[in-house]
């Protein structure tokens, strides 16, 4: 009996081959896999960009609101 981490790694290694088999079975399947990969890739890139910007803004003085001035 394999351990859970070993099974996880093995399934990750086997996954691209299974996706290729499914994509080659039908043209619609290939299009759906391509659309799904594009949506996941784009959303991950946007989330990463926003997260990196938020992280970097912690260390820079730029951005944010200034407290109101007493004379105004």
Textual characterization of the structure:
- By secondary structure, the protein is mainly alpha-helical.
- It is built from 2 helices and no strands.
- The protein has helices spanning 4-25, 27-57.
- Helix 1 (4-25) crosses helix 2.
- The N and C termini lie far apart (74 Å).
- The relative contact order is 0.05.
Output the keywords.
mainly alpha, 72 residues
Through-space gap between termini:
74 Å
Along the chain, the helix and strand elements come as: HH
- What would the average pLDDT be, to the nearest integer? 89
Structural class: mainly alpha
What is the topology?
Elements: H1 4-25, H2 27-57
Give a summary of the structure in a few sentences.
The protein is mostly helical and 72 residues long.
């Amino acid at each position: 009996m394999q351990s859970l981490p070993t099974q996880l790694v093995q399934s990750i290694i086997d996954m691209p081959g299974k996706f290729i088999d499914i994509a080659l079975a039908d043209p619609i399947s290939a299009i759906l896999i391509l659309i799904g990969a594009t949506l996941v890739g784009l959303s991950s890139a946007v989330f990463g960009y926003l997260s990196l910007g938020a992280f970097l803004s912690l260390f820079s003085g730029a951005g944010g609101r200034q407290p109101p001035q007493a004379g105004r």
